[in-house]
Amino acid sequence: MKFNRTINGLLSLLLVLGFSACKKALEFNPTTEYSNANFWKETSQATAALNGAYTLLQSALGPEGVYYGEARADNIALNLISLNTESLNLLTNNVNSSLRISNWNQLYAVVNQANLVIKNTKIMKDNGIYSNKLSEYNQVTGQAYALRALCYFNMTRLWGDLPLVTEPLKDATDDYYIPRSDTSQVYIQIESDLDSASNRLVATYSPSIYTKAQFTLGGVNAIYTDLYMWRHQYDKAIVSSQKIITNTANYSLTSLTDASVLDNTSYAKMFTTGISSESIFEIDYNFSERGKRSFYIQVYGDLGFQPAFQVSEQLMTKFSPNDLRAKIAFDDRRAINKFFEKTNFNRSQMDDKNVIIYRLSDILLLRAEALNKKKRVPEAIAIVNQMKVRAGEVALLPAYYNTLTENQIENLILDERSKELCFEGKRWFDLVRTGKAIEVMQPINGLSDPQNYLWPIYLNEIRLNPLLKQNSYYQ
């Protein structure tokens, strides 16, 4: 089932296509001019502007989201048939400032659209346009804050210090020279945005499909959990993850045994159809309704389509023969087909698979990491066993896990995340977050310097903004 987000023709053109080709200091596509005479005068226009932000997010993270989280890690290997130079550079850790993927401007475009919504809806509210419509105002602004927080969180994990922009850029005629703010300031901004979002958003929308494809309170708590784990604030991560787990009305694990054919299980359809019971927030695409494609087929898929990547031998060896997830994720030719129908897949019409940003298994396993750090090992292993038993494996027993050190249990949890969340854009961040990137990747691609964890700032950004300084490893 797909989520139909309506933007009328004129607003779609203004909000999404109205970015010109001209570039300025932050390499934004310059913001669309909104005439005060005919825009920001009705609540429906603000909602359309918010929808424009979601559309920009489609472009920013489809398929770049999986490149950022997988292409420098050990779950994937190069598909030699594809001869994709950029993919080869990332897998061999030849990351440089001329790579297209090092350009942050599409994420900043989402930030700018969110800034437009936040600023102008406040003016609309002050002018009485949202009179008797406080819940609608909260829903629109809350989602804008959450979108901005998500983008800044992704960007600071990739590039570190960032130019913090919380006001909309006006047009393409001014120069916007903005220096980078320290990551501590970026984290403050992210938490502030999440606080603003959580104070405004509700747990569910009607129809229910909106609960998965737009930001809700659950989606905000998922970012909180991810952020707290990234910053090693384990107590906070346990609290925020619990808020998601207890919301059983909206979030429950899918099954690998609820259909006679494995590909028809709710687990398998979570990736091919989208909007599952397990989903917390995913970026929705729909080719038939809106012509939107996530272009996953360029990254993964049947090797006959010449995608960039295939499954790595390192990941294949982690799956036991009884693990049903392997049969869904890849085939015996090493083609990654987790997100595609195994038969009758039509590349020209069905390359609109949703990009899952957060799902319940992700949050549960992050929680397991936090519990392990807080010496609550039985609770952590109980989560791991949930994943294993669902997949057809045998649960771990106390006689085994009680002999393990904290680090060994962390590795066990990371291996489970590697299997459960493979190809979903999580693995690189897992390795960096836990300080294991060099240990795992040095034998594969020579990674040896923690300063190399960050990505380079795109060369054209440096040229356009004299206040930007390149990350030290790439100077």
From TrEMBL:
Keywords (A to Z) from UniProt: Cell outer membrane, Membrane, Signal
Location of the RagB/SusD domain: 336-474
Keyword Ubl conjugation: no
Signal peptide: 1-25
Highest taxon of source: Bacteria
Domain annotation SusD-like N-terminal: ranges: 63-212
Residues that span the membrane, as ranges: none
One Pfam family hit: SusD-like_3
Major subcellular location class: membrane
Subcellular location: Cell outer membrane
GO cellular component, one term: cell outer membrane
SUPFAM superfamilies with a match to the protein in the record: TPR-like (SSF48452)
Family: Belongs to the SusD family.
UniProt-recorded name of the protein: RagB/SusD family nutrient uptake outer membrane protein
Taxonomic classification: Bacteria, Pseudomonadati, Bacteroidota, Sphingobacteriia, Sphingobacteriales
